[in-house]
Amino acid sequence: MANPVVRPATGFDRDRLRAAIVELQEHERRLHDTRPPGEAMADAYLAWMLERAATAGGAVFVAEVDGAFAGFAAGWVEESASLAETPDSNRFGFASDLCVLPAFRGRGVAGLLLAALEAHLARAGVARVRLYVLATNASARAAYERAGYRPYEVVYEKTVNPRPC
């Protein structure tokens, strides 16, 4: 098997990106009840993600192995004005999505996609890259930690008014 190749996404990748978003959403849906079905949100989310990357100094990268779509990463620059944060913390890169299809996991694809996105965001002038991950997504957390990410803030949740079934 050849080494993964990472490249910027093109319009020809749209259907594969959509399928990967469905895959990612369904994976996260198995981990937490806040995720709607992938098919129900994929088109709107893909359009939003591509627009956000295009307008906020971001990018979408695709990984291929032997010409087969293996996954993608997307992200952009976020800016806030928190008085409690330093300037380099108020303007940071945000890795919004990382998906490696099941057949390609454990082969370093996630690290390569993150590295491409980080390099792009660093060229946009950010010093930090952040991302969110479900607390129960142990495989994603391990991949991020292998890539050098460390916890920054932790969000706690408590259900106080359960939804009707």
* Sheet having the most strands: 5 strands, mixed
The tally of strands reads 5
Instruction: Write down the domain tally.
Output: 1
Strands of the largest sheet, in order across it?
1-2-3-4-5
Task: State the fourth-level CATH superfamily.
Answer: Gcn5-related N-acetyltransferase (GNAT)
Q: Which CATH first-tier class would you pick?
A: Alpha Beta
SSE order, as H and E?
A: EHHEEHEHEH
Low-confidence stretches: none
Query: Whole-Å distance between the termini?
Result: 46 Å
**Gyration radius, in Å:** 16 Å
Q: Which architecture per CATH?
A: 3-Layer(aba) Sandwich
Determine the CATH topology. Answer: Aminopeptidase
Helix content: 25-40%
> So how many helices?
5
The residue-averaged pLDDT reads: 94
Helical/strand content category: alpha+beta
Strand-residue fraction?
A: 15-25%
| Global geometry | globular
Notes on the structure:
- It is a single chain.
- This protein is of the alpha+beta class.
- It has a single domain (about 5-145), classed as Gcn5-related N-acetyltransferase (GNAT) (Aminopeptidase, 3-Layer(aba) Sandwich).
- Helices cover about 40% and strands about 20% of the residues.
- It contains five helices and five strands; from the N terminus they run βααββαβαβα.
- Strands 1-2-3-4-5 form a five-stranded mixed β-sheet.
- Helix 1 (about 15-30) packs across helix 2.
- The longest helix is centred in the N-terminal third of the chain and has 18 residues, at about 15-30.
- The mean pLDDT is about 95.
